[in-house]
Amino acid sequence: MAKIASRIAQLTGEGALAVFTRAKELEKAGRSIIHLELGEPDFHPAAPVVDALRAAVADGRDRYVATRGIPPLRSAIADYLKGTRGLDVAAEQVLVAPGCKMALALAMMALIEPGDEVLYPDPSFPIYPSFTRGLGAKAVPYALREENKFQPDLAEIAAKITPKTRMLIFNSPNNPTGTVFSDSAIGQIAELAKKHDLWVIADEIYARILFRGEYKSIWALPGMAERTVIIDGFSKSFAMTGWRLGYAVAQKHVIDALDMLVLNTFTCTAEFSQVAAIEALRDSTNAVPAMVEEYRKRRDLFVERLNRIPGFRCQSPDGAFYAWVNIEETGMPAEEVQRVLLEEAGVAGIAGAAFGAEGKNYVRFSLVSATHLLEDALERIQRVSSRWRAAVAR
Predict the structure, then answer these.
(1) CB 261 within 8 A of CB 283
(2) What pLDDT, on a 0 to 100 scale, did the predictor assign at position 390?
(3) Most buried of 36, 116, 279, 382, CB within 10 angstroms?
(4) Phi/psi of residue 202, each to 5°?
(5) Cα–Cα dist 131/19, whole Å
(6) Half-sphere exposure of 134 (CA within 13 A, CB side)
(7) Is the pLDDT at 275 greater than 60, yes or no?
């Protein structure tokens, strides 16, 4: 039998999808499940965005278009980054892709050689190390630890840089911890990148979901625009997960390289969704600030009440929409906590090892369900916790 390429064996999936599959099985069997496993907003795009999509389809905007994205959207993204992050970006430095994962994959394919080493945070989005390995490179983790408020340890990063190190990836606000990297951390990462001539991939998909301060992009620091690739998109900030719209921002010669990969893969991103994305960036109804404020309320409710439940400990995240919960004091492995919460309480969360070895004592909950569902989930967790304590007492 003909063989599958060996690179496929280097790839891994996402733990969230496995939990989601089991949760749907339980629902089909009649169980009540509260879904806190997927990072998918329960919001939907604002009405003007949906209207723009309908109009674009009705107008026949369903043909092949420019491989890099339609010019009006690329210009709108450049203006948006100027308005929300103070970045000086030209439209020619933007490439639109069908989803942030694709934008990330294009950047990694363009910049990583087999045998290179890539630094990535642990815990973090599991696709970073997975795709690194798939490209024949070595994924090298640097830890985000609770005792350091999940900020990167720059001494650890510096110690792990070798002559083979090609790239450093980071995600701020971070999935799964919700940590916003400090200005000091961002500045030190920039200095290391310049000193060792590294590419930096700044995954800024949660940049708008911020609960304090203003977002600081590493792109804006001296000497960093020339070596940084920003990955961002519409899934999280604009609640457009299924629309599959992402983009990469980089110097033109990098965008040229990504464009060659587009020509050899998916050709272009659907025009009608790109037209609607322009309307999303306008945010004429202020949907984004309203959504972020609702996430803030959910965070405050969930974290405060969860911290009252014995066995659970959670630092309040500064961004994104996740609760990264330490479960050491339950006395059970995180995988068992995940199982019991799902099978007995009907609450779907994800054992932290899905995001890296540093997550072994954690469970991630996505705060993407309405407040009354979060309250119900907390009550269910409380009941299960009471049973654990009673069992231990016996």
Answers:
(1) no
(2) 63
(3) 36
(4) -105, 105
(5) 21
(6) 16
(7) yes
pLDDT of residue 319: 97
pLDDT at 344 over 90: yes
pLDDT recorded at residue 391: 59
Q: Which amino acid is at 75?
A: S
CA 391 from centre of chain:
38
Q: CA end-to-end span of the chain, whole Å?
A: 57
- Give how far Cα 314 sits from Cα of 178, 284, 300, 341, 358, Å: 11, 35, 11, 17, 15
Report the relative pairing of strands 138-143 and 362-366 from DSSP bridges: unpaired
- CA atoms of 245 and 269, how far apart (whole Å): 8
**What six digits make up the tokens of 108?**
């990694």
Question: Which alpha helices (DSSP H) does the chain contain, by range?
Answer: 15-28, 47-58, 71-85, 100-111, 127-134, 154-160, 183-195, 252-263, 271-282, 287-306, 334-340, 371-393
- With a CB cutoff of 8 Å and minimum separation 6, the contacts of 78 are 89, 90, 91, 93, 94
Sheet of strand 350-351: strand arrangement: 313-314, 322-326, 362-366, 350-351
Distance CA 322, CA 368 (A): 8
User: If you compute the radius of gyration of the chain from its CA atoms, what whole number of angstroms results?
Assistant: 21
For residue 389, the model assigns a pLDDT of 65
Q: Which two tokens stand for residue 164?
A: 């083979």
What are the beta bridge partners of residue 138?
A: 117
pLDDT digits (tens, 9 = 90+) for 172-186: 999 999 999 999 999
Average pLDDT over residues 108-114: 98
Rounded CA-CA distance 189/182 in Å is 11
pLDDT top residue among 19 and 141: 141
Cα dist from 104 to 29, 156, 186, 199, 258, whole Å: 38, 25, 20, 13, 10
What is the reported pLDDT for 385?
A: 85
Burial class (CB in 10 A: 0-12, 13-18, 19+), 223: exposed
